[in-house]
Design a protein that fits this description.
two-stranded antiparallel ribbon, mainly alpha
């Protein structure tokens, strides 16, 4: 499927003639004009035309629309669909990384000092609305298609509305006050942003759930259960707990992938981040990535992650996205294999901060959750199959951003010939961006049950996730021979991994508030470095407390977070890009209002 998606991205600009919402440096948006040589609506109102446009709507998921020159986006990382900047860096999972002079707009986001002029927000806004526009164009053309059955038309509409639901879900959680534009607004996209769009997002996902098939003919297309999962997640964001529970009950019982395989956690945690193992039973909906696809570029090969590899390493570039010490400490476990929910920073995990790679170092010997070493690269521990992480020599500036490296986005050595893409100055890979994985679903279900007072059911969901973490297959093992990492792994764990389930009745005994604390902490451990953290702590209402504590702790270790703060009543949402407000005028008045506090 991916090869078709790539091809379609290049024909789309010539195929559409309707209006667009994303705005550019000139007074009109790209799709408000009809370029010479464009096709008419009649030219694409056919089964083949609609199919091509639908693939283009899926292709917009990766946020890499630089091939449409008029969109005028910034660097590929500015709209990375993983939300590594807006979710993980802003939420305390990771430092920006690199050094102080590199990509300073990210530093402002990391420290909560952003404003509407930050161009990163404008890029993210534009590429998400590019997806909305592509979907709306298709929906506007469907009534004129004569060579498709009603069932085929309904499925296309359902896929389109799933995609539009996704694009708007992203916009809503990022920017809060977002204008709703659909196929009825073509030619008049300057709509106000003073109405809550959650009900519209619900409607799109509900239609997708009701009308998508379970099994799809091509990997990467949304199915019925992806629609259900996204709808349930929407209910969670709205705190509609009874509605969310009703869906989670069905999803966890009957939910299945688009290949018809029942949802289940993979036996090995790390299989979710290996190109060889992607589209597995844990993948609810993923953006399909490919490498070496004949395009001569990496736009379909995780281009948004191209900066996020250890510096001065086999990967070449660029030293960004370094996990924080605070995140690393979160994986400390007690004698019973349980996390320290409140005091994890009191027993920090040993690091090689300020120690040269040529100097001796022994890694931490205390109890740890093994998910740490599939999430964070740390000295003396196998870095996938690339050898033990050497420490400081792979870090651009330890004083600035700490001693650690990202791991979930990094490709393995054993299959790099197939899944690494070197068609750029920084590497790409075929590792999918999994927007929703089943572990996420289970923990959202746990949260829902706890909010409703069903603590035993909530604990059951959490323990499913922790059972996988304790599985011996999930542990990181030392190499048979440290000098030959491709020679295989031994049976000796790389650290003292101690992780266990919560004992029967534990959540009931600790009460609702502490059970919710445990569930939220489990999300931190399981989903770290996957772009969720900032949005989670904002919707929980804990962002101010969490980030204030984070800045106080982490800024004593590195220099990059000086002045970091979370301003209540402002930082819960990112600002509407000033450029979009400036270009939103209609009849002499602006149609877009700024969020509070900016």
């Amino acid at each position: 499927m991916k090869r078709t998606l790539i091809r379609s991205k290049y024909i789309l600009a010539a195929a559409v003639v309707a209006g667009g919402l994303f705005f550019h440096s000139c007074s009109k948006s790209f799709l408000e004009r009809a370029p010479q040589g464009t096709l008419t609506g009649a030219d694409v109102s056919t089964k083949d035309g609609i199919s091509a446009l639908l693939i283009g709507a899926y292709a917009a998921l990766d946020g890499q629309q630089q091939d449409v020159a008029a969109i005028g986006t910034g660097g590929p990382w500015e709209a990375a669909p993983s939300n590594w900047i807006y979710g993980s860096v802003a939420g305390g999972d990771a430092h920006k990384g690199s050094d102080a002079t590199d990509q300073p707009p990210i530093s402002l986001i990391a420290t909560g000092q952003f404003d509407p002029s930050n161009g990163f927000f404008n890029t993210k806004w534009k590429v998400l609305f590019e997806g909305v526009v592509r979907v709306n164009i298709i929906l506007s053309l469907l009534p004129d298609v004569k060579d498709m059955t009603e069932a085929e038309l309904t499925q296309v509409e359902a896929e389109c509305r799933f995609l539009r639901g996704h694009y708007y879900f992203e916009l809503k959680k990022m920017f809060g006050k977002v204008p709703w534009v659909d196929e009825t607004h073509i030619g008049d996209y300057k709509q106000p942003n003073n109405v809550d769009i959650w009900p519209k997002i619900e409607e799109d996902f509900q239609f997708a759930y009701d009308n998508l098939p379970v099994i799809q003919s091509q990997v990467g297309r949304a199915n019925k259960w992806a629609g259900a999962s996204y709808l349930a997640k929407t209910y969670v964001y709205e705190k509609k707990w009874p509605e969310a529970k009703a869906l989670f009950d069905v999803i966890t019982k009957d939910g299945a992938t688009s290949k018809g395989e029942k949802y289940a956690l993979t036996a090995r945690f790390e299989d979710n981040f290996d190109s060889e193992k992607k589209n597995n039973t844990e993948s609810v909906f993923a953006i399909q990535m490919s490498a070496n696809n004949g395009t001569g570029q990496i736009s379909n090969g995780n281009q948004g992650e191209m900066l996020n590899f250890p510096y001065n390493s086999p990967f070449g570039c660029c030293g960004f996205y370094q996990p924080t010490q605070e995140l690393v400490n979160s994986y400390r476990t007690d004698v019973n294999g349980l996390p320290f929910l409140d005091t994890y920073n009191d027993n920090a995990v040993k690091s090689d901060m300020k120690i040269l790679s040529t100097d001796p170092f022994t890694p931490d010997a205390g109890n740890l959750d093994p998910r740490l070493d599939w999430t964070v690269g740390r000295r003396g521990v196998p870095y996938l199959d690339w050898g033990n992480h050497p420490g400081r020599s792979w870090v651009r500036d330890q004083n600035y951003a700490g001693p650690y490296a990202p791991k979930k986005n990094v490709y393995w050595q054993y299959n790099q010939d197939k899944y690494k893409d070197a068609n750029s100055w920084a590497p790409g890979s075929a590792i999918n961006i999994v927007l929703i994985r089943y572990a996420d679903v289970l923990l959202l279900a746990a949260e829902t049950e706890a909010e409703l007072g069903n603590l035993e059911a909530a604990q059951t969901y959490v323990n499913i996730v922790r059972t996988r973490a304790a599985n011996p297959q999930t542990l990181v093992y030392k190499y048979i021979d440290d000098t030959k990492p491709m020679g295989g792994f031994s049976t000796t764990p790389a650290a003292k991994y101690v992780v266990a389930n919560y004992a029967a009745g534990a959540f009931t005994g600790m009460g609702k508030d502490n059970a919710l604390k445990a569930i939220r902490f489990e999300r931190k451990l399981e989903l770290a470095m996957e772009g969720h953290r900032f949005f989670d702590i904002v919707r929980w209402g804990t962002a101010s407390a969490e980030l204030t504590r984070f800045f106080a702790y982490e800024s004593k270790i590195t220099t990059d977070l000086n002045g970091g703060k979370f301003t209540v009543g402002r930082n819960e949402h990112y600002p509407i890009p000033q450029r979009q407000i400036d270009l939103s005028f209609k009849g002499g008045a602006k149609t877009l209002d700024q969020n509070e506090g900016y």
